Amino acid sequence: MRKRNRLAVASAGLAAVLLLGGCASGGATADAGTGPVDGGEFVTGLYLEPRGLDPHRQVFWETYRVSRNIFEPLVGEDLTTTEGTPDLVPVLATGWEHSEDGRTWTFQLREGVTFHDGTPFDAQALHKNVRRVWDRSYEFFDEESAGRVKVWFGNLTNATPTGDHTYTFEFDRPFLGFPRILAQSMYTLPIGNPVVWETYGNDGFAEHPEGTGPYRFVSRAIGDRIELERNDGYWGEQPHLDTLTFRIIPNNQTRVASLLNGEVDLISYVQPDDVETLENAGIDVPEGTGAELIYFSFNRRNPVFDDDRVREALIHGLDRQALADEVYNGYASPQYSFLPPGNEAYRDDVVDFEYDPERARQLLAEAGYGPGELRFNLVVDVANENVGQWLQAHLKQIGVETEVVSLDRVNYSARVYNPQPGDGLNIDEFGETNAEWLYNGYNGLKNRGLNPEQYAEVTQSIETALYTADPDQRIALWQAAEEQLRTKALVIPAVNLNRYYATGPNVEGFDFASTNWYDLTDVWLADQ
Questions:
Q1: Which of 336, 346, 421, 428 is the least buried, fewest Cβ under 10 Å from its Cβ?
Q2: 72: which DSSP letter?
Q3: What sign does the CA torsion over 420, 422, 425, 427 have?
């Protein structure tokens, strides 16, 4: 039974009254300060319901904060890195190299690894993963998975085992960013057990998720929780915790209260107003600069945004420092680039259109909009409703009238891709460490109606960076592409969050990684 030393909350809102409890985490057997101890039931409070636990179909960042404990990639990132770009580390591949032209990548695969059912991981197992997302002649080719990874596998021309533990990918053009893309968790290739989809079919895989990771799937109750247990046959260093439970707690106050009263050990998306309350209660709210980018994207199906002056005006009208201070209580940094901190091409000295409300009003007038004449909807996920309300008030100061449309995550996502007449800006959250994120992000803008033929220079600049065979020029080319996108005012980077997680007083070993996700294998629960 789960039990622990913890603080309890009892008050209206989040003005917590703390009560000291007095017992230890389930299974933990040593005091804090004596180093990592094994055992314990760790519970995380998620703010979004994860999508299906299928490594090739997954979307939403909260999904792979769960699934990455089950599935592993060929290449990973050092998630103990809390600033800057994390180094690449071997996972299911022990080494990798590319041809001189950058088109062919060969991976040496780790030997002695098994999936959770004992099936060996080898080049043939990897091949079935690749075929599932790429080879239409494969019996278990999965259209949905192929659609998810097409952004990176669309130029794959050949993929084949070249030994029992060697595998080669061939692309029709240079692809120097491939290893770091494999280290991401969405729109890429974490490795699943082919036996499962051969048994249950492609649609059944998410109900029986099985990989090579440090934890194995136990159960899932939609809308409530996902339970994992330690994989005692794991090839790598054993994680400390016995079990991981991910509870779905969309309500911000309920999530915080659950942490304060000891029901959960970790929560994500801490609201700025809660940071002080949590810290006063002995909760750790670590600082970090991970890729937690909040950005506003235009609904380009709305013709008012075809006018460059309108988009530039909205950026000039955005006081990002005020947004960081007033909405995020200073727990965010103004963001002027679509490449977030932690990204390998990030530059902290770039600026798009500085805050200048007079210039904003002037541009709107030149575009034919007097005060109150430009109107549109701000469509937001309910978790960002406060941001939408702040933005509504802020845009009013430059003469723009808006209506906030707040939706749950599922309906929000559907609305973004199927906007209603009058929809204007969306508020999104994401960010990756690979420079190619810019390409992925640009495609996301196209899904919001942006016509790439209108921005041939941007498209060409991105393609030049994406397909360069010169490793010494790669990052500079991505930075040049980012400048093209930025100066065309195609998106509004807003802030990057820096107080995103909170952990209970007996949680040790948690790092706020530079990525959009974290690693729980080094986390342990200490007695208090």
A1: 421
A2: B
A3: negative
Q: Report how far residue 159's alpha carbon sits from residue 147's, in angstroms, rounded to the nearest whole number.
A: 18
294 strand-pairing partners = 429, 495
Q: Please give the model's pTM, rounded to 2 decimal places.
A: 0.89
What CA–CA distance (Å, rounded) separates 102 from 251?
47
The 10s digit of each residue's pLDDT in 40-63 is 999 999 998 898 899 999 888 889
CA proximity to 114, closest of 26, 6, 195, 9:
195
In this predicted model, what pLDDT tens digit does every residue of 161-191 receive, in sequence order?
999 999 999 999 999 999 999 999 888 999 9
Q: What residue has token string 């406060």?
A: 386
Which helix (H) or strand (E) segment holds residue 416: the answer is helix 409-417
Amino acid at 476: A
Q: Cβ atoms within 10 A of the Cβ of 504, count?
A: 28
SS3 30: coil
Helix, strand, coil shares of the chain, percent, nearest 5, are 30, 20, 50
Measure the CA–CA gap between 48 and 18, rounded to whole angstroms. 27
Do residues 437 and 185 make contact, with C-beta atoms less than 8 angstroms apart? no
Rounded Cα–Cα distance for residues 519 and 375 (Å) = 44
| Residue reference for tokens 């033929």 | 453
HSE, CB side, 13 Å, CA atoms: give it for residue 254.
Answer: 9
Q: Which two tokens stand for residue 447?
A: 């899904």
Question: Is-contact 427 384, C-beta < 8 A?
Answer: yes
What b/e sequence results for 118-135 when a residue is b if at least 16 CB atoms lie within 10 Å of its CB, and e otherwise?
Answer: eeebbbebbbbbbbbbbb
Residues 169 and 188 sit within 8 Å (Cβ to Cβ): no
Residues ≥6 apart with Cβ < 8 Å to 83: 289, 514
Cα dihedral 175→180→185→186 (10° resolution):
-30
Residues 6+ apart with CB under 8 A from 404: 377, 378, 380, 385, 388, 389, 392
